[in-house]
Predict the structure.
Amino acid sequence: MDRKMTGGGRVDTGDVEPAKGNAKPKAILTTHGFELFINDAEEFSGNLQFNDHRNGDVFHATSIDQILFTNDPSLDSGNPGSSFNTARVSGAGRLNGVDGVRFTAVITDNGEPGKTDTFEITFPDGENPGISGVLEGGNHQAH
């Protein structure tokens, strides 16, 4: 059975952009989008993009080394139901035009409409601070 997880969203960095004029201060967010697939032969493919609005970094995965779909019983992926609710992904990509940057990501689907879904991305060599948190907006969907 083919499996996939798709989605995207925003995660709050905890940083705040200073107020301009009479406007209120704005939270600085990261944004991401992805499509991850595993077919019946256990071959995987996909894409992942991460934009860090703290520093303007743009990351796009160019190769996926591993996708592992697992089920965390403490989460509920909601309807439609799925046999998994968590994706663990690793590979390499392009960060601000520089190829070969390694990454790992953990993505969860914790029901609808996505308010408790989570996204975590790390860069083991320290090229970007990464992010980990609950979505401020968006949705992840395990299929």
In short: The chain has a mean pLDDT of 93. The beta strands are 3-17, 26-38, 44-52, 57-70, 86-95, 98-108, 118-122, 131-142.
